Amino acid sequence: MIDHVYISVSDIDRSRAFYVAALQPLGWKELGAYDSSTGPANVPDLFGLGDRSYGSGEIAGASIWLRQRRPGETGLYLGLVADSPAEVDAAYAAALAAGGRDDGGAGPRPHFGPGYYAANVTDFDGNRLEFVNKSWNPKRPA
Predict the structure, then answer these.
(1) pLDDT tens, 91-108?
(2) DSSP 3-state percent helix, strand, coil across the chain (nearest 5)
(3) Smallest Cα–Cα separation from 14: which of 63, 52, 50, 68?
(4) How many CB atoms lie under 10 A from the CB of residue 109?
(5) Which of 34, 27, 77, 78 is nearest to 56 (CA)?
(6) What is the C-alpha separation between 122 and 138, in angstroms, rounded?
(7) Which of 21, 34, 46, 73 is most buried, judged by most C-beta within 10 A?
(8) Most confident of 6-10, 103-107, 120-124
């Protein structure tokens, strides 16, 4: 399941208006902004939108986070749900063994909230993957 996607854009305000309008009929809502001054240096300012399930506590929802594009970026950052920290660790190890590059080792990410555990890798083309377990997500059926 996709947990979140970062979309790198050239104009945050213009893109925010576009995504809010385009996704509203599908039940998406504004989540607000993440101020990067409260987290690590490699995490940018973000503006988020969540689907109708996001934050419901019933099922894991999906989110899109807009960020300012940097020169040379591919623009793709994909967060994938892991059912446990052990799954995060396993996916991270498998990605590295398959030739991926470390982009942030497995561990807690308290700047995103308590119970947020993740690992980050990049593929051969610079696309970024985050394997993430959020303790507040309901468990998926087996």
Answers:
(1) 999 999 988 889 999 999
(2) 25, 35, 40
(3) 68
(4) 20
(5) 27
(6) 28
(7) 46
(8) 103-107
122 forms bridges with which residues in the sheet?
101, 128
Strands (E), 69-103: 76-81, 101-102
| Token representation of residue 89 | 């660790």
Q: Which residue has the tokens 């998406």?
A: 28
Q: Are 100 and 121 in contact (CB under 8 A)?
A: yes
Which of 54, 61, 64, 53 has its CA nearest to residue 22?
64
At 41 the pLDDT is: 80
Short-list 60, 55, 46, CA closest to 6: 46
First to last CA, the chain: 13
